[in-house]
Amino acid sequence: MEVGQVLHMKGGEGEYSYYNNSLYQKYVILKTRPILEEAVSQLCRESLQEDCLRIVDMGCSSGPNALLPVWEIIETIDSTCRRLKHQKGPTLQFFLNDLPGNDFNTIFRSLLPNFYDKLENEKLDKVIGHCFVAAMPGSFHGRLFPDNSLHFVHSSYSLIFLSQVPEGLISESGMPLNKGNICLAKTSPPSVLKAYRDQFEKDFTSFLGSRSREMICGGRMVLVIIGSSDHNPACKYGCENWGLIGDTLKDMVDEVWLRP
């Protein structure tokens, strides 16, 4: 069974769904809004003559935050057009990207109708052109779009997820080096830290290489990535939460194996 089939965001709109449990991610998006606005403003000042701006949010997941960066980008483009006295802005094409198992249906069924209503009610569609939103399922660690097609790339708190379990987590004798953990922990040996670091560098290099082919010359990119301390990578920026999840999963497995 693939890891993605076991560990993934819970879809739907229930009490324990990602849809209703993503307030911290929303806080981060709002906190970094000035950076997003500046990058979009710079892009607009150089690209407002374009007929269509193509924008992608990578790792959108399925909660209400999926359209939050889209709305912020639209507001910034609208205000920039007004400031530069453009009577009509470009058409906007937004792509929401995540793995194929993501609950895209919730986004398009529960969020998008209200999104378009809000766009019309606030008259933003009078300045910018038509706005189209589409899904782009697939791993952002590889290619997703044609060469020179994207004007803006956004990703918030998604690049921390690796494309695969790092290699080198098993000793030559076949023993797990990170036994009892699902992530970096206080008990993880240096070889495990290096394995995770090497995998991240490989994935991030692949991500940047793919985007360099897909983005137009002069395009912009805003990436928000959770970090950790070099001195104690297991106990910074909320990473200890993964340890709690790991302990819970271990207890669940033990309970299954101990049943008569």
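[next item in queue]
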Amino acid sequence: MGLFDFFKKDKESKEQQQALDEGLQKTKTNFFDQLSKAVVGKSTVDEAVLDDLETMLVHADVGIDTTVKVIDRIEKRVARDKYVSTSELDRILREEIVELLDRNSGATGSRAILDRPDNTGSPFVIMVVGVNGVGKTTTIGKLAHRFHAAGKKVVLGAADTFRAAAVDQLIIWGQRVGVPVISHGMNTDPAAVAFDAVQKGVDMGADVVIIDTAGRLHNKVNLMNELSKIKRVMQKVIPDAPHEVLLVLDGSTGQNAFLQAKEFTKATEVSALAITKLDGTAKGGVVIGISDQLQVPVRYIGVGEKMTDLQLFDRTTFVHSLFKK
């Protein structure tokens, strides 16, 4: 890496950290307001502090089951160490949350594409799922930008054919990013679009193919059948496709996002998560709860409107930003 590349990477890293800090600002404000109330007038972490801490985590949309896990771990540390001051509480809480997220970490899947050698002979196929309105198509556009900016050849497939806006939106994103979009228009067979997109990826020696899918959740059986058909058709071109099923969730909906995630994991085998719209919400704790409860890794988080504001999720950086005062 040359000196210019080093400084460019360092600048990008600082800009991403700033975007993350700003994007989590409402969650942080809510988080520390509640934490301050939990420890006011107290010198040690006692049962009353833990009760208040439990309420704080639930209000941050961490979720009840995950909150109980965190409180249980802190209780054991307090019992073991005998004396834990309230001034240590944020450090202990930070450590426990990082460790909890560590169970579902890993650099496999689509986040490893940037380190994947070019021209491997077969593109990495990502099938993107999620209900309408969560930012699914925008997330695909931002992903395409990330990969394209890194020098990767990208193909997009507009297989959400039940919504004209979805097809048009993806075409616009393809034009903005400068990558081809395979589209048959509205009310066409989604599986046929996916087949042609994967075939195009193979023909042009693409590094990654990203397939958009319909975001309907009113009928789980139909959704399951449709996604299964898309998978089967893609496998006629690449037998092990898709290599990742990325579920996009709207973080600003809090526990509703978790309920959506549970339904989608019943309908198809989700292997990774992208949690969007964390900027402008106080519910950023949902990232912790969803990752823990679903046992599915968070790959990306959305912290702003810019194309670069879809960030690779790093558990340590996320928690550090969450606790940064």
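[queue empty]
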